[in-house]
């Protein structure tokens, strides 16, 4: 999957799947702009690959998104990766929790796509195709999980948002897809495991729901991410693509 000549912007690229994607896209020849709210994480990414441009971005800051889009100019690929897992049932979700999850997981993607789409449409006139990739989850409209009501609702909204963008801009050369991972071993998953009353059991429970008997690594996900951001997926749009180790068989 060749990304030479492409400029790709990624949110939440400081750690986890966003970081792995930034490194993988750069290794395939893309000019990568890696953004995150965590400057230390960005600095360590820059130390790992100096060719990657890093930039502070809080995806919940509408003005910062507009300024970034103006500074960066047109991109060929936009990977909206930022997201947050609320842990709890419906009865645990306060109005503030709900608003926070919707804002970070969904509204941020609306704002990012709205800010970058005009430039992406211009790029697509030259190249034939620009790609937006939105991070959803198997926990969404695809499958329900205990303690993931707010999270699943936001990720279901991400899939709906993805399909809407795909339908509206297909004739402009814009493709828009959603990635739906299973449980991936990332720093925030480790945090959820450590925060459980019994972390050893919590890890066993996460693994037990994976038919392949293990958690995903970020490297299990990067091939699909590269595919969806590259022209190899030029005939794929409006899809929610599962990479879940068989959970939803
Ligand atoms: P992670 O959760 O470990 O890291 C998330 C990154 O997001 C951090 O670098 C953090 O600094 C950054 N971030 C947090 N708030 C931000 C904000 N307001 N603006 C910008 N950046 C912000 O990484 P992960 O586990 O790979 O998760 C990435 C995405 O994948 C999320 O959308 C998550 O919901 C989704 N996802 C994760 C899993 C999993 O099991 N890990 C499964 C399915 C989907």
Automatic annotation (TrEMBL):
GO terms for molecular function: oxidoreductase activity. PANTHER family: DEHYDROGENASE_REDUCTASE SDR FAMILY MEMBER 6, DIHYDROANTICAPSIN 7-DEHYDROGENASE. It comes from the Bacteria. Keywords: NAD, Oxidoreductase. InterPro entries: NAD(P)-bd_dom_sf, SDR_DHRS6-like, SDR_fam. This is 2-keto-3-deoxy-L-fuconate dehydrogenase. It holds the Pfam family adh_short_C2. It comes from Cohaesibacter gelatinilyticus. The keyword Oxidoreductase applies. The keyword NAD applies. The lineage of its organism: Bacteria, Pseudomonadati, Pseudomonadota, Alphaproteobacteria, Hyphomicrobiales. Belongs to the short-chain dehydrogenases/reductases (SDR) family.
């Amino acid at each position: 999957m060749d990304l030479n000549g492409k400029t790709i912007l990624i949110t939440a690229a400081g750690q986890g799947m966003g970081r792995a994607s930034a490194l993988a896209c750069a290794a395939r020849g893309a000019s990568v702009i890696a953004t995150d709210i965590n400057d230390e994480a960005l600095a360590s990414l820059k130390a790992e690959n100096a060719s990657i441009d890093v930039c502070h971005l809080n995806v919940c800051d509408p003005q910062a998104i507009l300024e970034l889009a103006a500074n960066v100019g047109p991109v060929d690929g936009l990977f909206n990766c930022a997201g947050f897992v609320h842990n709890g049932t419906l009865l645990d979700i306060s109005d503030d929790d709900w608003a926070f999850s919707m804002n970070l997981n969904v509204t941020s993607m609306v704002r990012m796509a709205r800010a970058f789409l005009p430039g992406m449409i211009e790029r697509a006139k030259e190249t034939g195709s620009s790609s937006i990739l939105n991070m959803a989850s198997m926990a969404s409209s695809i499958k329900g999980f205990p303690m993931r009501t707010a999270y699943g609702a936001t990720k279901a909204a991400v899939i709906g948002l993805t399909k809407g963008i795909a339908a509206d801009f297909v004739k402009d050369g814009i493709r828009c897809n959603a990635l739906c991972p299973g449980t991936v071993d990332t720093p925030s998953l480790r945090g959820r495991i450590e925060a459980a009353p019994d972390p050893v059991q919590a890890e066993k429970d996460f693994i037990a729901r994976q038919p392949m008997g293990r958690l995903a690594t970020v490297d299990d996900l990067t091939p699909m991410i590269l595919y969806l951001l590259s022209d190899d997926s030029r005939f794929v749009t409006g899809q929610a693509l599962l990479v879940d180790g068989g959970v939803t068989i």
